[in-house]
Design brief:
Helix content of chain A: 25-40%
CATH architecture of the largest domain in chain B: 3-Layer(aba) Sandwich
Distance between the termini of chain B: 41 Å
Largest interface: A-B, 165 and 152 residues
CATH class of the largest domain in chain B: Alpha Beta
Radius of gyration of chain B: 26 Å
Largest sheet of chain A: 6 strands, parallel
Number of domains of chain B: 2
CATH class of the largest domain in chain A: Alpha Beta
Strand order of the largest sheet of chain A: 3-2-1-4-5-6
Oligomer: heterodimer
Number of strands of chain A: 12
Structural class of chain B: alpha/beta
Helix content of chain B: 25-40%
Strand content of chain B: 15-25%
Structural class of chain A: alpha/beta
Strand content of chain A: 5-15%
Amino acid sequence: MTLPRALAGVRVLDFTWVRAGPWATRWLGAFGADIVKIEWPEHLDILRSNRTTIPPGMDPSPNAPGQFADTNVNKRGVTINVRMPRGLELIKRLITISDVVIENFSSRVMRNWGIGYDVMQQLKADIIYVSMAGFGHTGRHHHYTTMGPSAQALSGQTFLSGLPGKPPAGWGWSYLDDTGGMYGAMCVLTALHHRNATGQGQHIDLSQMTAGITLTGAAFLDHTVNGRAARREGYPPGNRTAWPGTAPVNNYRGPTVAPHNAYRTQGGGHNDWCVIACLSDAEWQTLVDLMGRPGWATDAKFGKLSGRLQHQEELDEGIERWTHTIDKYELTEKCQAVGVRAMPVQSAEDRVERDPQLKARGMYPELDHPLLGRRKVQSVPFKHSKTPAAVHRPAPLIGQHTRQVLQELLGLSLDDIRAGYTDGTFWPKDMPLHHYIEETLR
Amino acid sequence: MTAAADVGTSGSPTGPLAGLRVLELADEKGQFCGKLMADLGADVIKIEPPGGQHTRAVGPFLNDIPHRERSLSFWHYNTSKRGITLNLNTSEGRGLFHRLVPTADILLETYPPGYLPGLGLEYEELSRLNPRLIMCSLTPFGQTGPWRDYQTSDLLQLAAGGQMGCCGYDPEDVPDAPPIAPGGGNAWHIGSHFAYIAIMAAVCYRDVTGEGQYIDASVHEACALTTEAAIPTYIYTGNVVQRHTGRAAAVEKSEPTQYITRDGSWLNTTRSGFNLTPARLRRLAEWMDKYGLAQDLLDEKYQSPAAIQANVSHIAAALETFFAGIPLEEAWHGGQKLGLPWGAIRCMDEIIADQHLQDREFFTEVPHPELGRSFTYPGPAALYSKSPWRISRRAPLIGEHNAELFCGELGLSQAELVVLAESGVV
């Protein structure tokens, strides 16, 4: 028996590219919406031309990058040239039978194509249009462009990451592309419910950079309410809650405690680290017992939180003398068995191969891809009792579903479709066709 | 311009989630999900234990004076909600909770797995009271698996989730640096974002079918999904990314992307090579020349993509000198004017002055009537054309809406409420 999907019957016309937008529609697809991804081979999605995730030995092609494949599961792929009148007309017909249009271009692209929100509304009165520009569609800098790192910088996210007196450590990936994608999906789902309740569609003008500001937590209010300057000595305090001798505001992630840091574990490799946090004096005493009550740890100065905060250098050195001889997973088990908060720092390999929790929860199922073969894929982080979300379809090869979609949704004949390939509507005239597309035209 | 918080004036458009009621039994792990729903118009009723939730003991505090009504962290994460107190460990408390469940659309809870079932409040029981109920349990590791009962914190989740494995320093910047967990409480934000979409998908399904359901959401899985290319890089190439200062963790070493400016602040140029085309390099060099800092970059010999690629280090060195000679504000706006996606590494002091954000009425004045003051809060990330996303009120005081809910809605008398308070039920 197949279980129902939460968004069965919802169609999303998906103009998104690179990371943030496609990450949004990945989730709508996981809930069962029909995601129709519109692409054009002369303006390739950057993830299709990225080479760093192409399997070793495989020829570069738009279908080879693993990062594209993982980001774009659950979608159908169509190539249409929006800049040709025939292409634009077909896009407009697709809008009339869609519930949602979503894109993450800079702020004026859709309007310049002749499909701004006003046009969409004429085509489909209750259309939901989500735009995901870095700075949004209004405001004096709407035309500014961002990528994850600059959005993180401008939103305050980068500033909160690092050691005092050092350059910002920032985020080692485009966190605000991942998060921008979450907000894109949130906006679509919120607007779908609003439409279900009221019959109204709307335009949602998301600014990815702006989303990041609220995620600095209480840092914003600490400035606007308390007037505390962010550029101050001992801040940001790395992994600690506060740098010894400075204002204890805990980098806006919880109570001010010690120990609270990363420690080397056995092996000495790049990711042979664990973290330990003791949120109370009692938790600290449990850790002291677990370490075998070494002399340094039983010193009265570490007995109370204020002393541990003051003597963090000595505290952290002592703890690391214990952790650095133990495997990070073994250490985690030892600590957690007695209620000490500890976790391994995990690499991607650790998460996929060693993490027993992700394994038990089925986080990396396998999926067949027509070019890349059978591969693990990132699944979903929630289990619905009635409408389970899932990775159910591999990422589309470029142009893979053009015929299928146009025949099924718009009723085009095979002759119409062949004509579109001849006149450059469905594929650039001077670009050779992939064999899988040729097969669809027979 | 600054937006004023909607103080309930009639006739103003309501948020997109107006009409939905959420019962929130969520602490630091899920209160941000509740805030998103509340700011988007849902009636979120935060249920705290008598005396207030432990999240009220988290600083910073108003004027650094610790008090359960002065936690700025609590203020931030609980805007637009109503607040009641209820002791679920008493049978009377559970009785009142049973009466609230039929009025709710969504129950969001973050208790350790097994805690609510131990009180007889598992989904199967609650759905008998309200078959339309959507219940989401957002927990550190989910309801099943070997880590289900493990203790945790934001730092621990960012370690296990993979965030720390990606964030840190080049050895040239900080020798032997540890992996770094960025601040702000982002493990809980990441979990709350995924919980939000999980719940809203269930709401959309219920809109069509009338059926509620149960959702088991895991912060660990949400974090494990939030490291962009790290997992696909491993799956497809077998390689593990290494940490670099302020830029993408990568398999191979890359050029720096952060530059210090004249005022000692940092500029982020997004990626090595600065996204430079010959035309952009020409315009960049013309701009640098106005400061007398173009060096030889106006030379024709750099006018090809291959030449730019071959001279990236030289261009970087010239830019490093240039940035060091101009203020941060000029640097990032100048780059944007050339079409380069550069950004200033800002802190709140600069963000609050951003006129673009003012144009979009991002900054929201929220009255705190009991203090006789208003404070500026971060507002909406998105502008909804028909149903505004906005903060409707400050976070609730402890038990602020007890009378409104227990007397006004459930029909208890004031005297009964007094007895319940004295006996530790509310």
